Protein 1
Amino acid sequence: MNEFLLILISTVLVNNFVLVQFLGLCPFMGVSNKLETAMGMSLATTFVLTLASVCSYLVYRYLLLPFDITWLRTISFILVIAVVVQFTEMVVHKTSPLLHKLLGIFLPLITTNCAVLGVALLNIQKQNNFIESIAYGFGAAAGFSMALVLFSALRERIAVADVPVTFRGAAIGMVTAGLMSLAFMGFTGLVRV
Amino acid sequence: MALIHLSSPHVSKANATDRVMRLVLLATLPALLALTFFFGWGSLIQLCLAATSALLFEAVCLRLRKRPILFFLRDGSALVTAILLALAIPPFAPWWVVVIGSFTAIVIAKHLYGGLGNNPFNPAMVAYALLLISFPVEMTQWNAPFVLIGDSWKALASFPESLMIIFSGVNHHLIDAYTGATPLEVLKHRGGMTTEEVWRNVPVLSDGVFAWYGISAAWLMGGVFLIYRKVITWHAPFAMISILFLLSSLFYAGDPSNFADPFVHIGVGATMMCAFFIATDPVSCATSNRGKIVFGIGVGALIYIIRTWGSFPDAAAFAILLMNLAAPFIDHYTQPRSYGHRRANRGIGGGR
Amino acid sequence: MNPELRKITLDGLWHNNPALVQLLGLCPLLAVTGSVVNAIGLGIATTVVLVGSNLTVSLFRHQVPEAVRLPIFVMIIAAFVTAIELLMQALTYELFLILGIFIPLIVTNCAIMGRADAFASRNPVPAAVVDGLMMGIGFSIVLILLGAMREALGAGTLFSNMHLLFGETARSWQITLVENYRGFLFAALPPGAFVGMGLLIALKNLIDAKLKQRIEKSKSTQTDPVASKRVRITG
Amino acid sequence: MTTIVTAVLILLLLALVFGLILGFAAVRFRVEGDPIVEQIDALLPQTQCGQCGYPGCRPYAEAISNGDAINKCPPGGQSTIEALADLLDREVVPLDSEHGEEQPKTVAYIREDECIGCTKCIQACPVDAILGAAKQMHTVIVSECTGCDLCVEPCPVDCIDMLPLPVTPTNWKWPAPVSDPNLILTDRGRGHLLQGGSQ
Amino acid sequence: MTRLYSFHGGVHPPENKRQSLGAPIRQAPLPARLILPLQQHIGKPATPLVAVGDTVLKGQKIAEPSGHVSAAIHAPSSGSITYIGLQPVPHASGLESPCIVIETDGQEQWIERQPLTDYQQLDKQALIRHIRNAGIAGLGGAGFPTDIKLNLGRDHIVNTLIINAAECEPYITADDALMRERPDEILSGIEIIAHLLQPSHILIGIEDNKPNAIKALRDAIRARKLPIDLVVVPTRYPSGGEKQLIQLLTGIEVASGSIPADVGIVCQNVGTAAAIYRAVILGEPLISRIVTLTGFALGHRQNYEVLIGTPFSVLLESAEVDRSRMFRLVMGGPMMGISIEDDRIPVIKTTNCIIAATREEMPPSPPAQPCIRCGMCEQVCPASLLPQQLFWFAKGREFDKARHHNLFDCIECGACAYVCPSNIPLVQHYRFAKSEIRNEEAEQLKAAQARERFEARQARLAREEQEKEQRRKERAEAAAREQARKKAEAEQADAGEQDPEAELKKLKTAASIARTKLKKARDALKNAQEKGLDGTDKLEATVLQLEQSAQAAEQAWQNATGVQH
Amino acid sequence: MQELLNSIRRNTLGISLFAAVTAGLIAITQVLTQDRIAANQEAHQARILYEILPQSLDPNLHLQTLSLPAPELGMHEPIRVFQSIVDNQVQAVILPVTAHDGYSGDIHLLVGIWRDGRVAGVRVVSHRETPGLGDKIEVEKSDWIHSFDDLRWWGEQDQRWNVRKDGGEFDQFTGATITPRAVVRRVADTLAYFEQRKAQLLTPVTRTATSETERGHPNES
Ligand SMILES: Cc1cc2nc3c(=O)[nH]c(=O)nc-3n(C[C@H](O)[C@H](O)[C@H](O)COP(=O)(O)O)c2cc1C
Ligand SMILES: Cc1cc2nc3c(=O)[nH]c(=O)nc-3n(C[C@H](O)[C@H](O)[C@H](O)COP(=O)(O)O)c2cc1C
Ligand SMILES: Cc1cc2nc3c(=O)[nH]c(=O)nc-3n(C[C@H](O)[C@H](O)[C@H](O)COP(=O)(O)O)c2cc1C
Ligand SMILES: Cc1cc2nc3c(=O)[nH]c(=O)nc-3n(C[C@H](O)[C@H](O)[C@H](O)CO)c2cc1C
Ligand code: SF4
Ligand code: SF4
Ligand code: SF4
Ligand code: SF4
Ligand code: FES
């Protein structure tokens, strides 16, 4: 139990995927203009990330390791992820067109969210077991979601602020993300790894 | 005769933002005196430096943004930021530290977002956090209060000496003579001692803690003054201090040898300053009264967590920044119940 | 130059720069730009993959069934990336260690996938290759600028450790800007990366605004009546 | 050599499985129709003026959902662009001046003594806002006229004017407060100016 | 003593009431012209019953309500109608709107009054009709037609009647003076209202800064032994706001979007009660009201009994205004009133106060500083809103969010703007946002309507096309048959003369078209020449050609008409 | 139904085709670069080892390892000690150890010890200390790490093995005492451990390691 708590604290706060590890930045910048969309994206990403974590673990453990072809891990993981995402996308498209449109081009782009492949690769690097992999994937997604949701609420406030023209939009978004990252540095050391 | 379309109301209370800021400035006076009393001329010099550079940067930004300079300089917000920053950094930090700090606070944290009222993060704390991670050496060298190094105020660096330390920085032996760890640092890196042993054996705590208590009391005085003058409300400070007290008491009661006692958490370090002057910064705090309570609780809890398990002995700046970034989100969920509504409009709904 | 290719080039380098405008591929961009050498390394790798994947996708664009379009594209990209990864391990092992997980993560660099899907799968081979090349160069330029900024501010040097990429002779390329620089850690840490990127984007905005002003000025002297694209919808 | 063969086989195996899944899903979860068009159409001003380059608002809505730019509708102006950007999560862009510029709302008035009753304007009006029969003078139903000015051009005797709606206390709007322009310039306002170019 | 509750927020600005209470109510002079806007109330404007040139008697109905929510208008004095049309009216926009202007003859000749002293015996509907005929609209604020509020009996159960005597705004003392001097009128009015609504509980809410009025009312109530609770509430603006007063006196909140009657409460102003008394017992319609004239630019600051329609200028003169010192003219109180730039506008039914303020009294507000979210506005908002958030959203044009923050529950009381240290014109921001939202809604409605019509037209066209196709087919067949027949009939005389009338019209049209074409071409040519474009020679040729053909057409028409006549 | 089958067939065929081709390409690259990569990895690992003990002494240093439990050093799993063997006699050993009480996370060290107990050299393999402060333990940043060279440890009472602030002989860095304190303590502990397990440590192993099975990093545990 303690172990999982540590993994969660570590992935959500200390080594936040977005703000400290730099994974999943494109959706972080792209889908954070509106809190509502951000929440949708968070849910989608949480789902995909956890699932990808599981699938990639299974593929690695039961296909790649036994045949000693671990150097195929990138391509096989990304294939798994792409299929999972595409499948999700088809289902969402059919069942909830609004959600589908809200997430716009980003649902297919979850495939190319670094966080998803990143979590799969880091699971191997950290030699996590099955349960740990799930916890790690979920923690990473939770960290991503938290950062995304807070950031989008913040951006909504900035949207009505009197930001100089040159900085309006992406530039001030980046600066804000930087200050967020600065704030998250406060968590350094909570969990020692 | 009057203009048309002049909207009501046609009268207003004699009240102005600059007056609010002046009151805040006034309220920092006790703490400034206390700091000078215990630590020497350093704080005063830092303050002058910070104020000058902050006003300068503010003027430059206003100029670049083609705003009327005097009109905005008069509102005094840059001065408040400068003073809080100056009083937060070690009194004998080199001059460029405080100048870089003012630059960060005024240019990056404030004017990139559109100036007064628009910044989501507390400028002074952004500057402090940035300085802390960029120049940990300079930012952790607090000098010892005079009660530790001599028996009178004379033991501290004289005014010219202070100037020399801050501006030339060459006088390393001078610095070394004065610097020491702060109580929170000592308690954090206690090297195996129990809390009680630290209190008994380390002079900063056994003899010098009164300096910190005195400074905290001074901040508290200023804070009470601000509440009395209705510049701030009690919500955030009260929530923050009580949650900090609660957490530290609980853990201390559970394991008195490993956790610092509540008096340290409340009375030492930047707690009081943070509670009354920083967590109450209207611009970057949550909006409603309920939101301010949530904000305060968050700051208090984060301060405790980071102080106890994290890497930074005094966590106020990071706690504030973290809650700053959560403030808009808190606002979404703490909207008060308006007249005639059964429930408050919580959550998102701003979309459509 | 052929006007179409010219447009593609300008788009890649400036108007639709993957990093500054599309805000894609941010992860490696921010993560590995602690120094110029990292930036160059990643820039080259990314460009090679971009060109390769654009070429391949464009070649087979008519053969790919719609439902499995994305999986196939990512496989193509992943193949290139793995090949690059293996080659880097073989040739510049130290750099590979520094860039770490971000080499395999080129696969998920949104810019690459984005180009494959949005451009290469709809355009003929030459255009796709030029597009890949220009996007790659545009991306690399931003990488290098950010790397230089952060290295200069953070460590006071430029082009240090170039030997990792260009062999021992490159060791001497290092420029020390300030002797005994104390280091402005902020620039080297994650927050600095974000803020630096923000400043770069703002710089681009500023230049764009200035350019626009100039164009407007020259425009206002001519009077060319705007041709309305109106459609009459009734009799 | 064996490594190569195993690698190919394993990946082939994976691909087969996934191909099956996706092939199945492609049919099972196919989506027909596009409800987003309705939402876009609801945001367009329905002036039906064709300035966007499409014959009416709905065709433009369809075009937008297929990726066309959202800044081609002058009657809707900046506010419609913002609403569309919001709906589709796209960037807000200034109005494309190739399609015209945002103008104050107007309605058509027919100078009745000059009208020759040719019915050309009736045929032109997309919302049937003009009353009259052949060879009789015509009038515009002010409350129905969308101000698209499509009737102006066909009139052979030029008797139709587009006039702004008069402001009365009932339809008067509170203006946004303007502060002393020397003191508070919001960058927001200037941003529009800068981006919007010359207008 | 009933229990007193409290409402959130509120402010206590300097009262400035003493100045206008020095003298008793004075009759205002009869002006030469009375200007009566057709809309002095909430709802639809009234429809005139008179025409220019008519003579009218005092109290004669000159406009009748048009629709359910509307109010009648009566001639406040005898005279003749000289004008019906646009005149400046008291409205925040400063625009003109339709009015009836009466030139008074100084006779003050009353129409025959029809009192209903035995109202208790009457059918309630008849009584209500009588009140409606008297043109009474709330005198306390919005001017809502009173008969509607009194006609609730059927679909609402009213158990509490609240008489609003709070008069919470600074400066205004009209209700205060009324209560001091005519408490009996008020109480009789309340009796009539109570008769109509049959409430179980009657409350009068009055602020504690009017001791004399409290005493007068209390004595009168005691003398009449009426079951009325006189509740003295603390002086705090806006305790007189309907919803706030209800909360103050009963602890009940009126749900957003509904009216007090939904919770069994009706709230009427004391002035309205007095007006009802006059209408019912004396048979006098609402033609005058009490107006406070105050402000330091006036020589006499006191309450006047004023005929509705009296121009402000007349009143100001009568109160000896010093125009050089008058800096701002406000109708209503300083918190909610509207500023006036043209003093020819008339007093209307809701005008309770005119403030001619000097510069020192109401200085121009200093330039707005940025909002620092200090929260002072939030502490005083009686509707428990977040004014600062509303402001940010209004400024950033994020109207959806403003709405989500209950923008439409803002009563525009101005308390927030009063305390704002940054001097932000908050209320105007809200009014702007509300206008924009309403406008947007109207436009959306219009767009939906337009779409419907467009689609209907498309459908019609399609149908017509189909029918045309059908007919064409039939015609083709018919034509084939006809041709066959024609062939059979060998030669025949040509068709008879054409209808000369139609011919003429055709020629006229042709001439007209030719003229227009020519004009267009000339314009184009001129335009082109001005801009110095090339290709003008071609245009010139076209113009020349058109000139000729226009002449020809003109000639033809001329000839034709010549032939005819 | 027909449509479903069609769709499945087409998609499966497409994706498989590409899968086979890409897998083949990668596999070929892998086969071609395999040896070079293995060599690189080996060289990389060995580099630090040979910084402590010159390659001229024993070029097979990185191949001769010995697994030893080291609970005294706070390691849960056995550590892999490298032996430098000259003439069948262990001249020196290199121990991978970890200091846990650094400022922010573990500091992984390699401590080389001559057979007579003198320090041959210390290197930091990886750490997470603050750049500019704690990172002066890296040899690239400062030569503080050389202050261990040739020192010996004289048992528990030896006060020199402390930072100056604690009364020892090692400099602390300005503003950072924790990092050097952690490193000094751990090196001292390692020397103690060496004295205790001298016998085992100095028994030469036969080459157990081959480049194939020893792919891992010395400190990867
Ligand atoms: C648009 C509108 C509709 C109203 N409808 C009714 C109604 O149907 N019945 C009623 O008794 N009062 C109605 N009222 C009257 C209000 O309840 C209230 O008494 C009146 O607006 C005066 O309030 P004020 O001066 O505080 O604004 C309505 C008011 C407004 C503004
Ligand atoms: C902020 C505010 C203050 C008001 N103050 C008073 C007041 O002091 N006295 C009053 O009679 N009406 C006041 N009103 C108007 C009342 O809300 C309400 O319209 C009136 O009492 C209804 O009575 P009537 O229909 O008889 O006018 C105020 C309204 C608002 C919004
Ligand atoms: C951001 C930050 C990073 C720090 N990093 C280190 C570090 O890496 N190593 C270290 O020993 N001390 C570090 N410190 C300093 C410690 O907080 C503490 O001041 C110091 O180690 C105690 O030194 P002293 O005993 O010399 O006062 C850091 C401080 C801060 C604020
Ligand atoms: C009660 C109060 C507290 C404030 N606290 C801070 C503060 O902690 N940091 C700061 O930079 N400015 C502070 N200010 C000043 C002002 O709000 C600040 O300059 C704005 O954040 C800049 O937009 C404070 C002002 C008030 C009235
Ligand atoms: S320009 Fe706008 S209003 Fe006109 S047809 Fe196109 S969408 Fe409709
Ligand atoms: S009357 Fe003219 S302007 Fe109005 S809707 Fe019809 S065609 Fe358009
Ligand atoms: S009182 Fe004024 S400055 Fe303060 S929060 Fe409200 S609007 Fe902003
Ligand atoms: S004007 Fe509106 S927001 Fe302001 S205090 Fe009054 S009710 Fe609240
Ligand atoms: S590059 Fe990481 S999410 Fe796009």
Protein 2
Amino acid sequence: MIHVRLFAGLREQAGWGERSLAISAESPPDTPAGLWRQLGLGETVPPQVRVAVNQAFAALDQPLQPGDEVAFLPPISGG
Amino acid sequence: MIHVRLFAGLREQAGWGERSLAISAESPPDTPAGLWRQLGLGETVPPQVRVAVNQAFAALDQPLQPGDEVAFLPPISGG
Amino acid sequence: MAEAHRPGLVLRLHPEAFEPLVALAEWQQQLTAGGSEAPPAEAHFIGRVRGRSASGAALEALELEHYPGMTEAQITRLATAIAEHHGLLALRVDHRVGRVLPGEAIVLVAVAADRRGPAQRGGQELLEALKHDAPFWKREWSNGVGRWVEGNTAY
Amino acid sequence: MAEAHRPGLVLRLHPEAFEPLVALAEWQQQLTAGGSEAPPAEAHFIGRVRGRSASGAALEALELEHYPGMTEAQITRLATAIAEHHGLLALRVDHRVGRVLPGEAIVLVAVAADRRGPAQRGGQELLEALKHDAPFWKREWSNGVGRWVEGNTAY
């Protein structure tokens, strides 16, 4: 399983905030960019969206492992 | 009269902190640089010493008026 | 401090209003606990909610969403890197989450160091890091309508 | 504030120990008196006496001499210029005079502004101005001997 999370505006556009996806043993390891397409969020991840894997920023093409938590983060506005 | 004040290390080197000097009506207007010599503090005011006239920084050659308060300030270390 | 070479970060996420000066008093007490000497230099920053939205409308509230777990991990990473870079003695971050009203504090950043330069620069860098690299999202509520804030207010 | 366009300076010279957080609480209360909205950005700096002299000897006390009258006039001039340059909302300066013990606060600088940049920059400039252009002189006392400090600690 891979856990996917969306936040703030992204969550509201998609209409969901958390999903878990099964990974088949024979498929090649997925990446955040691949998940974005697979979930129907769009063809490519927009440049302003950042990706976190296991609660740390990560690259769009980072190979994912079973159990990973992948989050797509719209532009940050903290502080 | 002109009032002269010395602070911190300058006061201790000179052995006094406040003096009042009479100004004669016919003498040319004095300056802080002139006072420094007249008071026996040295030939020229050292570059690290700053001058205040009436509690605001002033030039060494500022003409003085009767009643002025002139202060010689060693290097500042506030804050 | 017992751990003078491992600068400590105190991090608090507040779902309810917090009082920055109370947080600072608690932090200062911790820093001098056990008779340790108070740090020579402390820099603080407090940010509060404005009464107007970015478009100028009267603001009812600011909603602060975050990513629980990553928020804490990410602020710890950011603070540790800044503390090592500037040789800081201690850091404290308080950040609101949830619904924040105009005038209430959103963020407190406090940094202790041996000299004023590292304290001031470290505090500024930590605040910018929170604004750009910690997973918080602001939504402005005006006239019953919420609008996600894209990016930060001008420095 | 009633005088939003004439940023107010609160200046206190303390012959006895003062508590910076108490000073800040008083200042914040003044800023929001009469229902005024709290400023969006506040930057503070607290400086405390180190336990060692510049030469590394254990410090008994720091003696702070100043030029009464000029100190107040000069800090007011410095703060007014910085407030106008950065468009600040309010400023507060607390400074010790007399004999100050290790760990005690020497200086508090607090600046309120509409944005974080002016608050932080204004606070830094005001602190540097106090260090270089306000008539204070420090004497370090160690082993019963006093030595005037020439200039400031490294930024």
